[in-house]
Each structure stands twice: as C-alpha cells, then as structure tokens.
Amino acid sequence: MTINYNKAEFIRSAVRPEAFIRDGRPQVTFAGRSNVGKSSVINRLLNRKNFARVGATPGKTTQVNYFLIDNRVYLTDLPGYGYAKVSKEERDRWGRLMESYFQEPGLISLGVLIVDARHKPTADDVTMFQWFRGTGCPVVVVANKLDKLKKSEIEPNLQLIRDTLELEEQDCLVPFSAEKGTGKNELLSAISQRLGV
Ligand SMILES: Nc1nc2c(ncn2[C@@H]2O[C@H](COP(=O)(O)OP(=O)(O)OP(=O)(O)O)[C@@H](O)[C@H]2O)c(=O)[nH]1
C-alpha cells in the first residue's frame, strides 16, 4: 500500500542521542546545507505550507526533528550545516549530535541529501554524502532550486553534482524545485522503491 503523505504528524525534536527514535519503523533521513531549501522540500512532499520550518534564521537549531508519515515511516530532518555565522560552540554541538546519529547502526533506512542545483556541492555536502554511504543505507540526492537554472544549465550542473559526489550507477539524483513542485513524483517513487513500500 502506498504511503499517504498527507497523514503526517510532528513527533519530537531530539537534541540528545537518548531522544533518537528507535521503534523499528523505517526512517528516511533528510540532510542539507542551511538554506538549501530542505524545509521547503519536506513541505512540498507533505503537501503542506508551513509544516517543516521555512526561512527561519539559518542554522539556529541543532536538533533532529521527527515526523511520522501515515503511522508507518519516519521522515527525519537533520539540522542544516555550513552556515558561516554559527558559533564554534553550536558547530561542535552539531558535530557531536551527528556523530552519534551516524554511528548508531540501523537508524537510517534511506538518506536524502539535498544540494543546490545551481552550485557544485560543497565540501560539507560531500562529507554528509559519505556519512550516509558509511551507514550502508541507500542515498537519494535531490538537486533543489532547479527553477533558478536556465534550461541549458541543467544537464551540466547535474553532471557536476554527480561527479563531485562521485555518484554511482545505482545512485539516484532527482532534479527538484520545491518552489514549483518539479520532481516531486520522481522523489516519492525513489523513496518508495528504496524502502520497498
Ligand atoms: N526559487 C526557489 N526557492 C526555493 C526553493 N526551495 C526553497 N527556496 C527558498 O530558499 C529559502 C530557504 O528555504 P528553506 O526551506 O527555509 O531552507 P532550509 O534548508 O530548510 O533552511 P534552514 O532552515 O536554514 O535549514 C527560502 O527563501 C525558500 O523560499 C526552490 O526550489 N526554488
């Protein structure tokens, strides 16, 4: 039975590893640089306007947010990274939380890394991709803000993303626009296919 993304509820924010959810349901984990449009992508998937936070002060909160979809699957929202104005203390807190998250076996069923379709992925994007890889889970890469590209720029930019992240044949790169809704169905079916639901 397909997942009903209209049935989504916020469960909790985890600021410490003790609060990570471990109840056996599959978890689809979203990560991305601050301001890449992660909240907008999540809102688009869930057919909501202001469900996941959009446009708040970038990088202000270091917490893992859990949304339960259709009572079956968690959408796990990792705190954004790479925001220059974050204090060292906040960055360290982020690092410790992520270390715990990625080190714990079996937490992630599927990784969704959101990058900016306009730019070469940053060193932080590459690191995050490798962390996902390191868990052994499948990873889907979403190239967001596609609407900001000229048609002629799309293919070269996607290739740059593939090359920089060293994507392999089986890896999925979904061109996406949270603004326009482009790529939504492709992303939903990539998720379903990889979760086997
Ligand atoms: N043109 C365009 N703008 C987008 C798109 N997705 C997001 N934005 C804009 O990008 C800005 C950042 O979006 P957010 O969804 O808040 O980004 P975020 O990654 O969740 O940011 P943090 O809260 O800092 O982690 C907002 O002004 C959005 O309206 C898109 O596909 N196209």
Would you write up a description of this structure?
By secondary structure, the chain is of the alpha/beta class. The chain has one domain: Rossmann fold (3-Layer(aba) Sandwich), CATH 3.40.50.300. It contains 5 helices and 7 strands. Strands 1-3-4-2-5-6-7 form a 7-stranded mixed β-sheet, with helices on both faces. Strand 3 and strand 4 form a beta hairpin. The protein is globular. The model has no long low-confidence stretch (mean pLDDT 93). It binds guanosine-5'-triphosphate. Guanosine-5'-triphosphate (GTP) binds next to helix 1. Guanosine-5'-triphosphate binds next to helix 1. Belongs to the TRAFAC class TrmE-Era-EngA-EngB-Septin-like GTPase superfamily. EngB GTPase family. This is Probable GTP-binding protein EngB. It holds the Pfam family MMR_HSR1. One of its GO terms (biological process) is division septum assembly. Keywords: Cell cycle, Cell division, GTP-binding, Magnesium, Metal-binding, Nucleotide-binding, Septation.
- Count all strands and give the number: 7
What is the H level of CATH, i.e. the homologous superfamily? P-loop containing nucleotide triphosphate hydrolases
Measured between the Cα atoms of the first and last residue, the distance is: 7 Å
The number of helical runs is 5
Order of helices and strands: EEHEEHEHEHEH
**Ligands bound, unique:** guanosine-5'-triphosphate
Function: Necessary for normal cell division and for the maintenance of normal septation.
Domain EngB-type G: 24-197
Cofactor: Mg(2+)
Protein name: Probable GTP-binding protein EngB
